[in-house]
Design a protein that fits this description.
344 residues; alpha/beta; Rossmann fold; 2 domains; eight-stranded mixed beta sheet; 9 helices; globular
Amino acid sequence: MKEPTSILLIYTGGTIGMVHQPETGALIPIDFSQISQQVPELKRFDYHIETIAFDPVIDSSEVNPSDWVKLARTIEKHYNDYDGFVILHGTDTMAYSASALSFMFQNLTKPVIFTGAQLPIGMLRTDGKENLITSIEIAAAREKGRPMVPEVCIYFENKLMRGNRTTKYSSEHFNAFASPNNPPLAVAGLQIRYNHSIIRQPDLQKPFSIKENFDTGVGILKLFPGISRSFVESILDSPGLHGLVLETYGSGNAPTSIWLSYGLHRFTLNGGLILNVTQCQAGFVEMGLYETSRGLKAAGVISGHDITTEAALTKMMLLLGSIEDKEEIKEKLSTSLRGEITAI
């Protein structure tokens, strides 16, 4: 007799796993070992579903690289025991966590689906139930014996998106996430329709493993009108800063101030790495297209193409923590490792 598809549900924290405590009206985490009481529809699945909950659970605004390591190790420990994994996570930093895990996992061959909710799962109008149910169905989906989506993804409000192409778009609406530079991997309507042509397929001959060394000496600098020299220099001179994600205007443009070009060049000459990403929701960095970006290129700034800020930050942290050769890091920063950059 064929064994049922097995799914591991991992609750890290977040709104989806909260219910109101009748006595106080406060939100408290539910007992995820009794998840079927909150979502009885799960009993209708012909899957073997087990749950693990972080103790204590983590508010997503408190998430840091050590939590990504804990999560990755949890999946590594149970990797051979389950066909797919669903991670329940707070929305505020979900895109960072999904991006981080996509780079940490080496030769991933199974679905890892992040999801959550804007309203607690115990509320009548919650979006959490549909997000959870469909995430489990996608994690279990197989075709010709192989997983349909062997990637780290985010599922939210009818769309399955590549985790490292996703950013939080709204704090109010149910469609909280967007993937402006990459179409959905699947869309859930009356049926779940998969975009097979863009789903990455692994090499099944290579073993699964994780990388877990992060260099947290990385920061984000967002340019804005009126930005001062003293402010920029205070960032660039921060002790222990090894890498910088530079959020520029439009297609990668920045003020042509000599002090800015000099400061960035000084940072790169001293071994620092700077990755140029656009502040725009959609579009590419095209360094050299305008005069206002040529100075950045001359200063040794690396083009991030259409990578998200979340993916840029986590990718740089992991590369700096895993690789010593700066030239190799530069090459990997400007190329797609997990589908985070559109092929040029």
